[in-house]
Amino acid sequence: TAMGGNVFHITARSENYGKYKKELKAFYVIDLKNKYDCYPFTFAGTILKTDILKQHNVNTSLGLEIERDFFLRLMAEEMKVVYLPGVEYTAYEYEEHDITFYRGLYMQEWYFDSITEFWMPFLTEMKEKYGRIPVFIQYNFMYSIHARFEGNMDNRNKHVIEEGHGEEYLELIGKALGLIEESIMLNRNKIAA
Fold this sequence. Notes:
Blueprint: E1 2-3, E2 11-12, E3 22-23, E4 29-31, E5 47-48, H1 50-55, H2 66-78, E6 80-82, H3 108-111, H4 113-130, H5 135-151, H6 166-177, H7 182-185
């Protein structure tokens, strides 16, 4: 994925690895005003123009949400992402019995601090800045909450939210959901979980 500036001058590596002739066409641009579930929120596997990194700060105080903050802010400005054809993308779907690779799953800050220190201020800021939280960001928040509940389906991390604090966590989630449009919560665009 690549973002920013003059996206139409990016080239993707062709099948014969010695030549770079496959020119990126406009139909590889994903418009985030119309497609809400296809964008990066980590640096892994993402290509950025160096001027983007020079012009945008990385907020290192956000802990586990550093990358998400960077990418969601950038994409809210650009409202587009470029998909590079000819690149092999690999994704994994983890199930309840699998041991996860994501360290945050076992950290209390992923459940609580992420909501209070990142999501709630971020969503509020986006609403103030744009008049409405961009829809793709609202869906990313919903995905983020879904991931927390899915990640807590096995017994490996039940200790992370201490006994007696489950209701407190649900109230926190409810407060954050108050910033999300009802139609997004009801998935009016039929985005797969």
